[in-house]
Amino acid sequence: MATFARPTFSAKAYAAFRPSYPASLYRTVLSFHQQQRQARQTTLLDLGCGHGLISRALCPHFEAVVALDPSAGMVAQARETTAADESIGDAEKRKITFRAGHAEDLCDFVPAEASVDMAVAGQAAHWFDYGRVWPSLVRAVRPGGTLAFWGYKDNVLLGAEQATEIVERFVREYEVLTGGFVGVYGSRDMPLYGFGEVAPGIEGMGRFWEQPGRNILRDLLRSVVPPEEHWTDVRRLLHEPGDGGDAETLWLRRTMRLGDVERYTRTFSCFTGWREAYPEAKSREEGGRGDVIDVMWDRMVDAVPEWKAMGDGWRDIEVVSDWGTYILLARRR
């Protein structure tokens, strides 16, 4: 999770352009938590809280929220965004305590054993060291309490598969042993300019993904299994991008303007690493000749005739973006 502590990472841009979570998602996790007749809603633990989105959404349902993130920049952004949020009152805001901290070591943040009623992690659980996190959560979460982890992976632009494939080419990892690019769909049809290049003289972003978190997320957290001796009622809700589903699984499919999708691609953690490796490559918005994201979007627009026909107005075109998603639920024995 070191990406979010890097000087090139923008917590403000992350907060502005990352997708939010719908009310249906919160209903799903709260419904699971409340299934037991004596379910308590005293303390919520928000792990990897980022800019505080989940803490703000769920604070009306709990008496106190402890929100942790390893990135001091994210914690500062969470405090700033929460203070400015007019959708919740001051009394609700005072319930939330934002602190810099790790899921692997909760002793300083949850001093009393079995004092957490619900532990959640949105788009953060793929970073955890589970050899340390499971013991940490077992100590913190009371019997009958719950955990809810959820997140999303590579999105597709429905009806614009050629543009989605170009994104795939620019972010896919390169496997030295097989000599080919490996992506979401396993295709290996990318024209080769040079080792790791996606355009002449431009390296792709693939090698800048942090592992093993990237692969854990791409597998929708299937490899993360709550230990049976401490957790029961385990439930998974999975959605692969482009597939069908119901209200519980299709919680991150939405209509967006292409300009907002472009901004979203600039929040990719692999792009943060790419920018550190190539600080001289300034975006056009910064007055430069263009960075890897600019080149990627040039290719995407050229690949879709309807987009290209719009000229400079292509950013106003609306598309349906569909992310692969997971929700992992479990109850403490």
TrEMBL record:
GO terms for biological process: methylation. The keyword Aminoacyl-tRNA synthetase does not apply. The keyword RNA-binding does not apply. GO terms for molecular function: S-adenosylmethionine-dependent methyltransferase activity. InterPro entries: Diverse_substrate_MTase (IPR051052), Methyltransf_11 (IPR013216), SAM-dependent_MTases_sf (IPR029063). Transmembrane segments: none annotated. Residues 45-149 form the Methyltransferase type domain. Keywords: Methyltransferase, Transferase. It comes from the Eukaryota. PANTHER family: METHYLTRANSF_11 DOMAIN-CONTAINING PROTEIN, METHYLTRANSFERASE TYPE 11 DOMAIN-CONTAINING PROTEIN. Belongs to the methyltransferase superfamily. This is Methyltransferase type 11 domain-containing protein.
